[in-house]
Amino acid sequence: MAVGLLAGRAGRLALLLVGVAVACFALMELSPVDPIDAYVGAEVTRIGPEQRALIAERFGLDEPPLVRFGLWAGRLLRGDLGTSTIYNAPVIGVIAQRFVASLALLATAWALSGLLGFGLGILAAVKRGSPVDRAIRWWAYTLASAPTFWVALLLLTTFSVTLGWTPVCCATPVGIDPADATLWQRLHHLLLPAATLSLVGIAPITLHTREQAIEILRSDFVTFARAQGEHGRGLVRHRLLRNVAVPALLLQFASLSELFGGAVLAEAVFNYPGLGQSTVQAGLRGDVPLLLGIALFTTLFVFAGNTLGDVVHGIVDPRVGSLHRGARP
Amino acid sequence: MLGRVALTLAAVMLAACGGGADLAGPDAGSSGGGNTSGASKGATPAGEAPTELRLAIGGEDEQGYDPTLGWGRYGAPLFQSTLLRRDAELDIVNDLATGYEVSEDGLTYTVTIRDGVTFTDGEPLTADDVAYTFNTAAEEGGLTDVTVLDEAVAVDDTTVELRLSEPQSTFVNRLITLGIVPEHAHGRDYGRNPVGSGPYVLERWDEGQQLIVTRNPDYYGEQPAFERLVFQFTDEDGNLAAARAGEVQIAVVPPALAVEQVPGMRLLAVESVDNRGILFPFQPDNGETDDDGNPIGNDVTSDLAIRQAINYAIDRQALVDGILEGHGSPATGPVDGLPWYEPESAIDGADPERAAQILADGGWEDADGDKILDKDGVRAAFTILYPADDSVRQGLALAAADMILPLGIEVTLEGASFDQIEPLMHSTPVVFGWGSHDQTEMYNLYHSSLAGTGFYNAGYFADQQVDSYLDMAMGATDLEEANAFWRAAQLDDDGNGFTTKGDAGWAWLVNLDHLYFVDECLDVGSPQVEPHGHGYPITAGIASWQWAC
């Protein structure tokens, strides 16, 4: 049974990857960005047609689109993601290097927004209608409608430029080997980008948790528990938490995609050398192999997140696990 | 030599931390994160120079530091050395080469190189490496165009012959910019592990963040004053913040931020040929199109009187003062201030009356009383395109349009992306910016044979006399002779040329000054007139920078 489940998942993933690759490639083909123009930049008056032909050859752009896609797919099947035109390095290496930098950022922001969002959501639900609830909701609505880059710029201007408390760039202090950077230095550089992502990520978790918690607080078993005299923290801990945790967890794992999207913007603002920054560059400069590589990688990442969410869901809520098992012969 | 101590890398950092010779920011290992050295400068004992220099001037080449892919095309290649180089006056002097000769037919460059030079891995640098470098660059699809090279052949250990497929006097620029790579250590990952014979060695490169280089003790030239250079890759705001915090000794700033005061730093304005000008479509609109079906020609700007009148009407000094905050100079052509510039091509200030006279003589008059001139049913009105994300070009276009309107010429402005501009640039004037130490650019902008080839001669400029001067300059075997022809193409004794007094193919507006905040103690000598590209080019003379406190 588990094998069947796995096979189903794997099949869906394969289809998804193919779809993403085709869509991504098609979009890049339709994009007005000419990778050679983008690469040549200001050298454009000194690079002759012959040299452009050499560049096209090196980038593999001298073939028609379908052939290029075929070649790319063929190499992919052999485990080769190709060479990034911007970085002149294997795509897989570029992604690995940048993702390590992004990982700390994503993990911090993900954990923070999850925990804070969940806590605030429960608090708002329990104190429904009170000034606390209204304050939390106002805060969540404001943040939900604030674009990530705007929050990032606001924080950067305030804390880095005006107050000078936090650094304006990079993941570790300039001038030293990043391996020698202390934990404190790393956290110091991580602070603002992570804060930005957490702040923006909190809102949906808070609002959903609140809705869910309110519904559960209205349910028969809570009313029954109340009638039995249970109230306050005990009620929250015994009746509410586990029931709200399930949808919150699913949401939390599903939010990986949004988180990644936010990281793209936040990294650009904070000059944080992660995968997000490379994604922007790949798009703006028409680096098809890199962008396709990143698209596939993020697909995997988000898909793994959602799958993990389902698995955890099954563990937290045994009914789900048995349903799955029951549904499949 | 200032503060020259032979130290290992770790010791350099320790010295920078504890020894008081401190610009590095106190402690790499302890508290405080990035902005550490704010208070450190006062602690520097008089007379003791820092061993480390920190720079926020860009300089990252994402594809790696491989000259055969274009690294070093302006500024110092740092890790590699070049056969020739340009000094502060842009005169050509020997570097790795001890001399070179060009054959009578202009097809063969014979270069002799120093004996006894070694790469930083200890291997000797021979003519084979030079030949390999040129041959590789010629075949590589990178950012340096060496396609004219037929083959490079090492004649003996110290002599190399560079054989061209056609004469090209500007090929000397390849000898100036192409850093020599070792044949035995050059491969795909060379850009990330450069080995060369230049003044500095790569210590580490954290992509997107910083580049750290240390002095090459075996460098054949004079040892640079600074043991270690740290380039940080921040954006404009980050550069300024780093300068304010005392984290860097030199930072590049855009004109808009140059009004700021930074304690302990002075504002350095370096002249440049980083120019901005309006490209005029040169041909009338006969309904022709280029290979991609984009329209060619404009019935207004194809008229010489219109182009000349606009050139005379624009008050370039006002543009410099108003748009560039004074940080620039009026431009007369694409090569102002370079050794091949023709000073006679300059016009003195704005002369709106003369402009009006030129238009009247050219047959333009306001026949229908709408304050806009007409001639043969053509109304003197056109659009000027500018890249929408460039506020300086937008400002220049706006101001120029205001200066032109009183003549009776109506200009509509339109911001666009380069991808939108490209199909329109043969038929609509565009605010472009160029500027290079390579004369090829001038050739490409004005030679009729290159009309419509990419961004080359986008206005389809065509003048036989100019073509022949450009061809003669390109074919010359002597650089002085070539320069004479380059000058004649701008303006010859008979008044022909592509500048205002001749065909006025463009209205060149301004040359930007490149602005840097520089530590009051840092002496960067007299920098070269810089090419297009603000930031890294200032490193052209970095090996001779000194600490002057």
Give the biggest sheet of chain B: 7 strands, mixed
Q: Quote the average pLDDT of chain B.
A: 88
Q: What's the oligomerization state?
A: heterodimer
Strand arrangement within the widest β-sheet of chain B reads 8-9-10-1-11-21-12
Which structural category do the helix and sheet elements of chain A fall into?
Answer: mainly alpha
From N to C, what is the helix and strand string of chain A?
HHHHEEHHHHHHHHHH
Count of individual helical segments of chain A? 14
How many strand elements of chain B? 23
Topology at a glance:
The complex is a heterodimer of chains A (about 325) and B (about 550).
Chain A: H1 2-30, H2 35-40, H3 49-59, H4 65-77, E1 83-84, E2 89-90, H5 91-126, H6 131-144, H7 148-162, H8 183-218, H9 220-227, H10 232-254, H11 256-270, H12 275-284, H13 288-316, H14 318-327
Antiparallel strand pairs in A: 1-2
Helix pairs in contact in A: 1-13, 5-6, 5-8, 5-10, 5-11, 5-13, 6-8, 7-8, 7-11, 8-10, 8-11, 10-13, 11-12, 12-13, 13-14
Chain B: H1 9-18, E1 52-56, E2 84-86, E3 92-94, E4 97-102, E5 108-113, H2 127-139, E6 149-156, E7 159-164, H3 172-177, E8 200-206, E9 210-215, E10 228-232, H4 236-244, E11 250-253, E12 265-270, E13 275-279, H5 304-313, H6 316-323, E14 328-330, H7 352-361, E15 374-375, E16 378-379, E17 381-387, H8 391-404, E18 410-416, H9 418-424, E19 430-432, H10 440-446, H11 464-475, H12 479-490, E20 506-512, E21 514-519, E22 522-523, E23 546-547
Helix pairs in contact in B: 5-7, 10-11, 11-12
